[in-house]
Each structure stands twice: as C-alpha cells, then as structure tokens.
Amino acid sequence: MDVIVGGGVVGLSLAWRTARAGLAVTVVDPAPGSGASHAAAGMLAPVSEVAYTEGPLLRLGVASLSRWPAFAAELAAESGLELDLRADGTLDVAFGADDLAVLDELATYMEKLDLPVERLTGRQCRRLEPMLAPSVRGGLLAPGDAWVDPRRVTAALLAALERLGVPVVRARVRELLRSGGRVAGVRLEDGGRLPADRVVVAAGVSSAELAGVPVRPVKGQIMRLRSPRPLLSRCVRGTVHGTPVYLVPRGDGELVVGATQEELGFDTRVTAGGLYELLRDARELVPGVTELELSDVVAGLRPGTPDNLPLIGPTGTPGLTLATGHFRAGVLLAPLTADLLMAEHVGDDGGPVEGAGPEERAGPMGVGGPGDGGGPGDFRSPGDGGGPRNDRGPHKGLRDGGRRTELRELAVLCSPERFREIS
Amino acid sequence: MDVIVGGGVVGLSLAWRTARAGLAVTVVDPAPGSGASHAAAGMLAPVSEVAYTEGPLLRLGVASLSRWPAFAAELAAESGLELDLRADGTLDVAFGADDLAVLDELATYMEKLDLPVERLTGRQCRRLEPMLAPSVRGGLLAPGDAWVDPRRVTAALLAALERLGVPVVRARVRELLRSGGRVAGVRLEDGGRLPADRVVVAAGVSSAELAGVPVRPVKGQIMRLRSPRPLLSRCVRGTVHGTPVYLVPRGDGELVVGATQEELGFDTRVTAGGLYELLRDARELVPGVTELELSDVVAGLRPGTPDNLPLIGPTGTPGLTLATGHFRAGVLLAPLTADLLMAEHVGDDGGPVEGAGPEERAGPMGVGGPGDGGGPGDFRSPGDGGGPRNDRGPHKGLRDGGRRTELRELAVLCSPERFREIS
Description:
Two copies of one chain form a homodimer.
Chain A: E1 2-5, H1 9-20, E2 25-28, H2 36-39, E3 43-44, H3 55-65, H4 68-79, E4 90-94, H5 97-112, E5 118-121, H6 122-128, E6 138-142, E7 146-147, H7 150-164, E8 168-169, E9 173-179, E10 182-188, E11 193-195, E12 198-201, H8 207-211, E13 216-226, E14 235-240, E15 243-249, E16 255-258, H9 272-285, E17 293-304, E18 311-314, E19 320-324, H10 330-346, H11 358-361, H12 403-413
Parallel strand pairs in A: 1-2, 1-12, 2-8, 4-14, 12-19
Antiparallel strand pairs in A: 3-7, 4-6, 5-6, 9-10, 10-11, 13-16, 13-17, 14-15, 15-16, 18-19
C-alpha cells in the first residue's frame, strides 16, 4: 500500500497512475486541490520559460509537455470532465531594445535545441493578438507551448480517483511513522495511523517540515479577471518594470494574470502591493484588461529548491519517496513526475493504458502516442534535424529513442539523492 | 403610516427618528444596508470636501456634521452597538506647486467662512502622519472633520429599529400606488400592497425609476485593506494623477481607500482598472499600504443629481416625499435629512430626545447639545468672529441662532420643488 501525502496536481496524478496500474494507494490531504495547484495559472510552457531557467529543467519540461495531451485525454475520458487544455502557443513580447535582445538570445538558444520558435515583429505580434499594447516592439512565439486549467485538473483527478475507489483522506499528516530505519506510514493530526509500504511526500511547501526536504515557500499572487469575450487567443508574456508577467486566457473568457514571486515564508496574504504590480504590468501588456471584472485573487506557495529542480524519486531512507520541489512547474511536470515514479516503482514506462486508444490519447499537440517517447541525450533528433524549424509541430526532437532510457536519464536530473541530508 | 422605500443609511435614519417620535413607519428594502451605504467610506468631511463642491452643499454638510455626535451617541446607546465615530480631522495633502496653490485657495475660502483649518508644511504633515510619502510638500488640516463606519451605522440602525418594533420588509417595491392624484402606498414585487399616508422614497439610484426623480448612478469602487496596526491616525486625502483619493483608517486597523467616480449606468462590477487606480494613488500618498492585506473591494452606485444637491422634502404630488440624491454625502447628510423631514412632517426640530441626556448626546466633537443649532445665513457667528480661528472647536459658527430657522433655510436648498418634473 502506497500513501501519498499531498493532494495537489502532483500527488493526485501519481495516485491516479498508481491506481490505474492496479496498486493500492491512499491520498492524505486536509483540503485536496487547494494549495499551490489552486493558485497556479497552468502554463505548460517549458520553451518560453527557458529564459528564466536552465537546461535540465527545460529537458524535464519538454518531456512532460509531450505527455500532457495523452494525460489530459485519458483523464477527461475517465473523469467525464473537461480540462480546458489548449495548445496555441505562448507569445513572449518585448517593449524595448534590451527586451528584444533577450528574446533574440533566447530564440538562438531554442533554435540550437531544435525547439520550435518564431521571431515576430511588433506588427506581427499585434496581428496574432490585436489587444496587445501599441508599444510592443517584437516577440517570440513558442507555438508548441500549451496551458490547462489546474482547478479543472485537480477536480478531474479527484473524480477519477473516486471512480477507481481510491481513498482520499481529508486530514493533515502530523509526522512520518518510522520503524527499523525505514518509513512505515504516517500519523495523522488526530493521532490515527496509516501504515504504508511506501510513503510518497508530495506535500509542496509542507514537505520541508514533514520530510526534512530542502524546499522553501515562494509566494505567488495571482489574479483572475472575467471577460465577456476572450481578449487573447494564446498565452502572452512580457517583462514589465523588470518583472515577468503572463496572461493566460481560458475558454470561458477568464483571463489569469500572474504572478508575483516573493520570499516571505509561509505568508499567503493577498497584498495591495502584489495586486498593484499585477494590474500595472497586465495593463502595460494589454491595456484592455482595465475594463475586465475582477473575479478572484489568491496567493499560493510554490515549493522552491536550491537548484530550482524538483525532488522526484526514492530517498536514502527506505520507504520514503519524494515528489515535491516543483517550484513554478508543478502542473507542467505532473505527468512526467507520475511516469518517473511509476517507472521506478513497478517498471511501468508510462506507455498506453488499457481503455484509451491512440486516437483518444493524441491531444491537440499531436504528440503523446505510444511511439512518442523522448530522445535520450539532447533535444534534437536525427529525423528532424533537416526539416523546417518552425513547423508548429512541437518538440519533435523527442520523438525517437526509448522511453525507458529517457526516463532513466530524467530521473537522475531530479533525484533527491543530490541532497544528502534528506530524510 | 409612513412607508420609507430604501434601507440605506438615509432611509433607516429617518425611520429611526420617525419611530422615536411615536409615529408608525415601515421600511421596505430587499437587502437593507447593502447598497451605496455598504460601499461608502463614511467620511464626515464637509470642510475638506468644499474644494469639490459648492456653498449650499457645504452648508448642508456643516449642519449635518454638527448633528453627528449626538446622533451617534443616541444610536449607540439604543442599539448597543459601537459606530466607530472618530473626529480627528482630515489632512489634505499636496505634492506639487499646483496642488499647493489649490489648497491655499481652499484655506482662504474656509477662513472667510470661519471654518477651522490649518495650513501645514510637508514636514508638519509627516509629523502628524509619519507614513505619508516623502514627496508630500504641504497640506491642509480640517481638524473638525470626522468619519464613521457606515456598515456599523446601518447595522446599529437596523438593531434600533428592531428594538422599537419597526417592520423592515425585505422586498423590492415595484411601483408607487396612486389614488386620486396622490401617492397612497407602494406595490411590492410579489404584488402585495402597502398602503401609506406618506411614502418617502429614499431608494438612492433606484429612486429615478420609482419616482421619476432626476438622479443618475455614479459608480464608486472602494477597497478595504487590513493592517495589523493603524497606518494613519486621521483621514488623509490627496490628488494623484488628477484624481482625488482618500484613505480612512478604522479603529480595528482597517484602511478604506476610495473611490472612483464613473458614469457607466447601472454597473457594479469591480474592474481591474478601478482597482488599479485606487492602488496606484494610495501608494503615492502612503507607500506603506503596499504591505497591507486586501480584505474587500466593492462597487456602489451613488445617486447624483443635476446640481449635486440632494432631494429632500415633499414633492408636488401629495403623499410623496423624497430623501434621495445625496450623491457622495449620504452618510454625512443622514442626520440632517432626518431632521429636515421630521421638521417638515411633525414640526420636530431634532432637539433632545427623551432618554438621552445632554452628556450622552455630546460627542467627541463637543457639539450637538440642545443649544447647538446652526446660525441662519452664513457660517460666521458674532461670538466667534474675534476669537482664534484654529481653535480645533469645529464649526462654532453654527452655535447660535434658532434650529428651526436654520432648518427652514436648509430645507429650501434641497427642496425637490426645484425640479418641476418630479413625481
């Protein structure tokens, strides 16, 4: 029996995969889906995020993005709920010469990796997104980037778990139960015990206290606006006053504006200053947001790690596995995280699942079929090297090679073993 | 039997005074206290508002402010609820030479009227309010201005009415009942009828449709921030980017920031643009607001009239009386409105009420006792002319003369008869 501590998008995804493999699993969370996943915007944008991160995280992101279409299709089929997954790309815009230079560097880097990207003039940007500010001077389109509604994802995962009969215990975990040098379960706040063969800590920022994990809370304030009709047709990002801001449009006209990054400990207050910055920067990108109705503001705590990479896999302590430290990429990395842990646990390589044919599993990005495992060592693939770069077929560099080899390599990148003090 | 349509601060105040006079009265409102009174900041600031208004409104405001201490003390005693009335003045600040010139003009005007005012340097402003922005170059203190929590006021009025057994019908009024050229009651949305000898329409912006009154909705968005300790000790106002903004501190650490003025019809959406302006301007005045938690944002509709003066008194139609069109001054003018209508109706001049002695009725501003009626024709009084001007005893100019004479003169200023088309 596995016990998964944490009912965010990561913990629930793993629970779902575990149950689908026929294994016994229980999720424990006082309020599933209400933490960082609730605050998240749901950008599945490893490519446009590359500027702010590093190679290994980009590899993880690209590998997980390629899994999203199948993951979403299966989950929608099993839960009966729509996830609002969209794959119309991300447009990164620049206002001044400095911003343009940064985007140009980024484009060159992505081209080197054979990741799809298009350089656009200001006019081309506005042709794609007419509501953009007139001061936008250029942009970069990452046509393969996608996004999803994280609140729908956790709702769908909970529905799917219910159908599979997976217990979701609404309680806080007080501590890990230890026995003979191994972790043997958890003790709940009311004193109750849940024994387990394996405890997976997927508790976001709470993982630190629970399992001695080096994660710290990075506060993010995020705002939702309501629009009678969609203002944008894809995700738009930009750097305003030195801070990155993004706007994510939902199918129902909602526009998500995020997000602050604040190192303030366990503080989830929505502040005047945080909201001010979001509003100011969103107005600079898309002046028309001014007319939209405010529908929601929340603050969440992202679990940041010292090297910005997640902690996924077994620790030095038998019985204790981690799936935390996803920082800003929890939604993006959830399918990959589940695959990594299933591969490690039972040798399941995340291939096709019974009951969902290839058609159902191919999503809007045209990837995710059984043969779509990623390439081993880099982002290029021999078959794609000579083709057109900006063909809107995203991340083709990952289409060859064995899924198992890829998973083994990715597992090394985010193995908790890199931090010796854990357990 | 009176029927008062509208359970905002104006309608409820009148109902309370009517019931106290031993007369039968019923209030009708689908949701008492939830309209403009709920959104209002509760500034009782006729003096600092003078810049944006005109002489007649200033007279009304000063006359009503002098009534507030007694009104609040009686209401608190009868309801058992605290109103958070404070009278520490309003500080109007200036950032540039233009603002300073405007404040100087204003000061001269107020001095001419013998209204208390103090000119301050930037340093003196910051000595009074250390959280003010360093860029504040000067200010004007109106030491007699006060403020109150309008939500507490409507709650207290409802409690007092309940104790007095006054029915508050939670329903919408569909139309006025007319019979033989007079108004004879109201018909409710469910078809039920409430007959009345006199119908008082105190329905704010809904008065237009109900009684053909020339009021229009002027939208105001207003924000409440939560602070562990009070950031300010008095109301602070300023003009930022050409828009006036004010900050009103409550006893519990809440800071109210208001307010937009938008002519958009019956629109009560909280918008990104409105909130942005409030946050931006509040930051300019008091940079420390950045750290405060957002606790509430609402939008209300103020009932504006063509000449910015309220409509208080009988109309050309027998049986129909108005108490509406208070625009931005509904809370300030509520006690005076009740006095004007009681004087008109039963000759009650708003003097002492049984059961509340002068001690109880004297509030923090030191006015409001039985002899404190206002002067007749101007703001000066013979006894005060030679004394020090900035003696912090507010509005002494109104301390002599008969209350009845004053009320008659004030009644003319806001009589609905000035708009012939009404009824």
